[in-house]
Each structure stands twice: as structure tokens, then as C-alpha cells.
Design brief:
Elements (H helix, E strand, L loop, with lengths): L10 H9 L5 H19 L2 E4 L1 H7 L12 E5 L27 H7 L4 E6 L33 H8 L5 E6 L5 H7 L2 E4 L20 E6 L2 H11 L17 H4 L9 E4 L11 H16 L3 E4 L6 H27 L10 H11 L3 H24 L2 E5 L15 H13 L3 H6 L1 H10 L6 H6 L3 E8 L5 E7 L5 H12 L17
Parallel strand pairs: 2-3, 7-8, 7-9
Antiparallel strand pairs: 1-3, 4-6, 5-6, 5-10, 9-11, 10-11
Helix pairs in contact: 5-6, 7-17, 10-11, 10-12, 11-13
Amino acid sequence: MNHFGYENYDGLGIAELIKQKEVSKPEVLEAALNKMESVNKDVNAFIYTRKEKVQKEIVDENEGIFAGVPFALKDISQEMKGEPLTLGSKVHKDYVSNEDSEYVKRLRKQGLLFLGYTNVPEFGLMAVTEPKHYGPTRNPWNLDYTPGGSSGGSAAAVASGMVPFAGANDGGGSIRIPAAYCGLFGLKPTRGRTPVGPKNGRYWQGATVEHAITKTVRDSAALLDILNGVEKAGAYTAPPFNGRYLKEIEKGIETPLKIAFSIESPILTEVNKECQAAVIKTVKHLESLGHHVIEKNAPVDGKKLAASYITLYFGEVSASISRLEEVIGKRVKYEDVEPTTWLLSLLGKATTAQEFVLSLQEWDRAAYEMEVFHETYDLYITPTTAFPPAKIGDHDLKSLEKLALEVTGKIGSAKLLKKLGIVDKLVEDSLKRVPFTQLANLTGQPAMSVPLHVTNEGLPVGVQFMAARGKEDLLLKMAAMLEQTSLWTPLNENPYFKID
């Protein structure tokens, strides 16, 4: 049992305890490792730990803002030299990074201790974290349910109290969805705000950005201060922000905002009443504070945008498999990866360059429309997800789909699946639970999931806020204000968070 209540502090809180010599770095690390030992066997958030290495690293005299504070890295893109990065796949299990990512470099300078890597779906492709190679990560609020994906391992590590915050990235909701499912705060920054290099100048054509999942708003702001900045060969640059996000959240929102909201799915599928209720009660609270709120859908064609997003999936997965063959030095076969990964790769090969370019043009049209929209409305609010967390295994392929994929995988033709109608079904099935988050990735806007509701079954759901590009400061101010209200989900209600 740790004597200073490790789980009760956020990253800045732990850093302050260390700075004031109320607790030592070794004591903090011991508390974190003890928590991992007691919890991870049930939650399966960490798939690789650096216990021996990190114990040697605490002798570092680093005096950065987070000196001595434990942190978890996500098993995709957040590379550490000399450490494995498996991407949640057995075919990548022997890969060892030969250099630090820029993300890791910037965080290390501020003294964070990297405890290890968190679980992800294979290649980060799903909104649940159930890779065949490592097994499912479970939601600390209820182990029968998913913590979401693709940063599900990171979210579970934070929600169970193993770390105060954890690395994450978001290419279609992979920060916001797990944050929503685990009662945490998740900010997706503006495209180009945080580094994706040096091995990438763009990641998923700019849809994917790096940041973190946190317990508190101030930790997210402090991490963004560290990560914010232009990088070498970066394909995108965010609108400049010359202040400090951590200071901005202290200022609050001084004038009433104009806010639009919607509880309708952009792809016209069902939205659970609990997810709608989360938005409605948030809207009523904001109205009570004097903000001007109107129900209005975003000015984009949701179905066209979803189709363009899926086209990106096809192309990027196919390209990833091709690059992977160079890394491992052999051809990737159907048996090497999960069936859905193989299907997406085949569909990528069947997608023309023309289709891919047209999909990117759809992003640009949506980005322009949303910038015009935000000239009138400061914020746009939706549910983060259309449904509460699913049970583990609910996303598994049905027997007919498995048979079709097996046949297609062996003959190497995606056209068969199109004829059978399975592709369209898989697309709708993959987005119907999470149709709200992709918009911000494709337009490059910042967006956040805020923990403002718990269902009658005791499962968290989030409320999503979007703002114009470059307006992370406004989002963080709004979140900091909501954090002080009774709407904010108390993390200590989940049983694993309270385990000593």
C-alpha cells in the first residue's frame, strides 16, 4: 500500500510533490510499479514494461516540469531507441526502434519516466483494443467491456491508476473514443501542432496527430506546451500559438460563446439515448452560464466524408503492409495478419489513385465549410460516440464474414467482397458506434472528449467539443471550466482505480 496516495494525483501534482521533497522519485516509481503489478494482469493495458531500465533512469538529474513522473507510451509511432514497437501485430513483434521519435525526445527533456508500452489493436485500425497477438484490454470500469481504441491500452492504464497520463494518437478518434469510454479527458490537437517525425512528415495524410490521454485538463495543457512546435520535414504547420496553454486555462472564458450542437449521427445511424442525454445536459448547463446555444448540424455531407475516410484506410493499410515487407525482409501473407487488416490491404490495392485524390479533395471541402461555420459558432458539440462501450468480443467477425474473408484472403481478390456486399456492411458496422470523431481528423481541427456522463449501467460516455483550427486554447478553457462542475465524471468511482 503506497503511503502518499499515488492514484489521487495527476502528473503535475506528482511533480510538485517531488519538487517539494514530500516524496522521492524512487518512491513514486515504486508506487507506479506496484500498481502495475496488482492491476495489469486483469486490465491488460501494458504489453511491455521497462521495469529494470526505468529504475536506472531515475538517477537522472533532469529538472523538467515532469521530472520523475511515470508515463506510458503507445505501441504505435512513439518510438524509443532500442525498444520494441510491435504495432499490436505478431508480424512486427521482432522490430526494435533505431531512434527516438520526436514525440519521445520532447517529453524526455521534461523528465518523464517511460514505464513501457500500452496495448493497441493491430496497426491501430479499430475502435476497440482486442489484438489477437496480445489479447483484449479491458475497461477498468467493468472488465467485460472495451476501453475503446486505438489508444485503449493507454486509457485503461490511466483509468486504473497505473499512470497519471499516457501517450496516445488520433487518426479517427483514437484519443477521444477511449477517453470517452474510460471517463478521461482526451484532446486531439490541430493538425501540425504536435510532432509525428522523424520517420513521418505526415501520418495518414495529416489525419493522425500525437498527444495524450489524461485525468486532468491541466496535464493535457502542460503536455501540449511541451509538444507544440514546428518539426523538421513536417508536412503541416498549425496556426501559431505563442502563449502557454497551461497559463491560458487559468484565464477562463470571459465572454459568452456562440455554440452549435447536434445529437444526430452524421451517417444517419442510431444514436443511443444515453449519449444524447450527455450532450443535452451539457448544453443546458452552458445555457445557464449565459452562452448562446443552438441545435444545428455541421455543414458537411457525413456519408461522403465517411466514404473518403474509409478510402484513406484502404490506401494507408495497403501502403503500411508494403512498407512492413521492407522492414521484416519478407512478403506478408494472409496468415501473418488479422483478417480485417488483410481485407483493408486488398481493398487498398483495388483503390485507384484517382479515388484516393478525390477523397482528399472531400476533406478540403469539409475543412473550408467548417472554418466558415466557426466564423459564426465558437464551438460545435456532439456525443463523442454514438453508443456506450461495447462488450469485449462484440466486434468479432460473424461466421459468414469470416468465411468470406478467408476465401478472399486466399484468392487475393477484393472484388468478391464488394459483390457479396460485405464491404459496405463492414464499413457501416465500423463507424455506426463512432460516427462523430472522424470529422475533426479530416478537417484538421482540434477536438476533445470531456467526461461528463455515466450511464445507468455505470459506464462512462463523453461529450465532444470541436473548435476552429488553432483554437486548442478555447477548448482547454472550456474543459477546465467544466472540470470544476458536478458534471465531470469522478474517476474514483471505478473499482480498479481505488485498488491499493
